[in-house]
Design goal:
By secondary structure, this protein is mainly beta. It is built from no helices and 11 strands.
């Protein structure tokens, strides 16, 4: 399994971006997918996840602003980010958990929010 993230960029505070994560290989719809982020000098943190293709969960810091979705026909996971804040600046990583419990990471895409 391989993951390819894209969609990052520079945006002003209050703006929006949509990240995409295309998944290649033996992908199962019921297996969890998630987005994490790592800001400069900080540890990687969980942002949002989608389990069993229907249940979604969000970190408190992004709840109401970010939406995770999944297009199973395209094997692609999205993260719609609205009302962006400077503190959302980070490298964003997508993650897929394999049936054997292995964690697969994408290469990361940089999001920079200017004030």
């Amino acid at each position: 399994v391989q993951l390819q993230a894209s969609g990052g960029g520079l945006v002003q505070a209050g703006g929006s971006l949509r990240l995409s994560c295309e998944m290649f290989g033996n992908i199962f719809v019921i297996n969890p997918v998630a987005w994490y982020r790592q800001a400069p000098g900080k540890q990687r943190e969980w942002v949002a996840s989608s389990t069993s293709g229907t249940t979604t969960n969000y970190a408190d810091s992004v709840k109401g602003r970010f939406t995770i979705s999944r297009d199973n026909a395209k094997n692609t996971v999205y993260l719609q980010m609205n009302s962006l804040k400077p503190e959302d600046t980070a490298v964003y990583y997508c993650n897929y958990v394999t049936p054997r419990g292995g964690w697969v990471w994408g290469q990361g895409t940089l999001v920079t929010v200017s004030s």
